[in-house]
Amino acid sequence: MREMTKGANVSLTALGQDAGAVVVSLGWTSASGAGDADVSVFLLGTNGKVRSDDDFYFYNRPAAEDGSVQLLGKTPTGSGDEDRIGLDLTAVPADIARIVVAASQYGDACFGDLDDLRMTVADRSGEPLVGFSIDDASVESAFVFGELYRRGGEWKFRAVGQGYETGLAGLATAFGISVVEEGEDGEDSPTAPDTTPSTATAPAPAPAPSTAGETARGTRTPAGGPVPAGPVTTTAGAAPAPIEPAAHAGPAEDAPAVAGVPAQSRGRDGSVTRGAPTTRKKVTLPRVARKSLAENDSWQPARLFPVPTLKSDREREVRATSVLLSVMTQVPELGRRLTAAFGAPAGRTQTFTEVSLPHGDAPRRPDGVIRIERAGKLWTALVETKTNGNPLRAEQVQAYMDIAARRGYEAVITLSNDVALDGAPVVDVKIDGRRKHKVDLWHLSWAEVAHQAQLLIRHEGVGNPAHAWLLQELLEYLRHENSGCHGFQNMGPSWVPVRKGIEDETLNMGDERAVDVVESWERLIRQVCLRLGGELGQKALPVQRARRGSDPRERRLAAAETLCVDGRLSAELRVDGTSGVIAVTADLRTGKVRTSTDVPAPEGPTALVSVKKLVRMLAEAPADLHVESLVEGGSGARGTLERLRPEPGNLLPRDGAPVSGFRLTLIKGMGNTRGNTESGFIRSVDDAVARFHQGVVARLGPLDVRAGRRG
Hints:
The protein is α+β, with helices and mostly antiparallel strands. Helices cover about 20% and strands about 25% of the residues. Strands 2, 4, 5, 8, 11, 12, 15 and 16 form an eight-stranded antiparallel β-sheet that branches. Strands 24-25-26-27-30-28-29 form a seven-stranded antiparallel β-sheet. Strands 1-10-9-3-7-6 form a six-stranded mixed β-sheet, with no helix packed on it. Helix 2 (about 315-330) crosses helix 3 (about 330-340). It is globular, with a radius of gyration of 28 Å.
């Protein structure tokens, strides 16, 4: 990730190959835990103004109908919040030149009360591209964090870091939003003049900016008075003039309110009411279920989607497809999440199953069809589903690609327990370059579906309790042993011979089966990240140490060579919002799975005090946790937590060398089979990571977790 300084800019396409859609995150912390702010997004034309009030997105208008902007909501952090915004740059109208990302506070609150103000931009997969920190906030009640703008046919990011004293209303006015002022007698004051600039001088009230912690000076008006207009001169064909300090409204609590917002935020007389955000609280479900009223444990609660009667793979596929597509239609939050990644617009959605479509002598019956209507146009995708570990058939998917191309459909979506890597489909199909109509092939894993559903009902919330209940029923269905929708669950046919070859030292360098095992390992780690992220409410991603843009085949060949020599499969993963890296190593020679991480030594006057602090922090950690002191140029003393608790001093190096940090490691037995059964390798790796994060990493609190060496 590239760190930006104030005023710097960079091309997004130069940072990542998939910059067509990005996720912008605004974060902050508060010492009191009570500080907060609300994000807003402005779409500006070449004149630096919105085309209309519809180009303004905030808590009461969180999404664009074309899918270009979507406020994804707040995610709590250790001592603050993070607000995320999804931007589909490919859907942004052509006459929009800039996307401004800002945040504001209410009443007497100011950004100087918050710490760690930061903006990050990540690509579609969640890989951070750029980061920008603001460290000079003081009395400002609004901040423009950064902006994305078009230049030379590509999108660029600029770190702005500009603060204002006039809150959200001042920002809205500056960018051309009409405002309404409520007078002292309760009647509306005149609407602020139209601020759309032309080739002549146009009135445009602007907030007073503040730079480097110093507030720009301007003449304040009495509370409740109208907002005076200051002239801003623009010239046709020239870049818009920067916002200059101008007369502005009084204190933040008396600032004008934004007009054009939904009716639920207006008073009875039509005026816009000010105060705390009026966004409707989203519904989440508690992690612990209510106590059952059943007479005994053998009773099973009634489920909306029952599965015990499913006996064949065909039944499972039909039921799973119908259940998912139905919930996607009824719960728009889930439907939009799953289809937006495939380039679908936001609109009226309908789904169908068992559709018959002509193809040669006999019709084809795809498992499902998704149709989304937007502005009189249809976006259509065919859906092919597999459950219970059954593989997708290339010839079947190829037939659906041909049908979609002939009928003008936009996509074919495959859905199975397999996990896609590097954004590529899991089956190979031939694309006829002579066809004018292009059809995209996408893949979705059942683990990804469960991940998104869990994020919504456990962490981010949905619109109403009925939506939350439907998502809970969907999760229960996917997790049932008879559903066949358990995610990646088989290491493939190469697993047993490769493991046997490592055990008896007969595996040869260059054996293609080792590459197959490495690829399956990558799919497993990706699924582990999905499950961990769903539990935590944060995105978890594998860490790629290879240079960006490097060939995945070369990366896997190198990992296969290590597997042949050392008998080890290794990976690293990181949870979004933390600097910590968890290293996972599966040693096929010893049959052990190691999960580890490095932490710096806690602050203390002596090394012994640091060790004692660490032991206290790990009071609830597993007793078999291995702790190793790290010294310059190597490793120091080590021992299990069980032995170190009564004698923390045993962790100090005998030669008195300074301790720079500690390596924490859990070692678990590895499953023998290649599948996802209780004795399987996949289950053992998944359980090892979950146990390590819950029992160790979560106990460390604010400590900076670093990458643990594999080995």
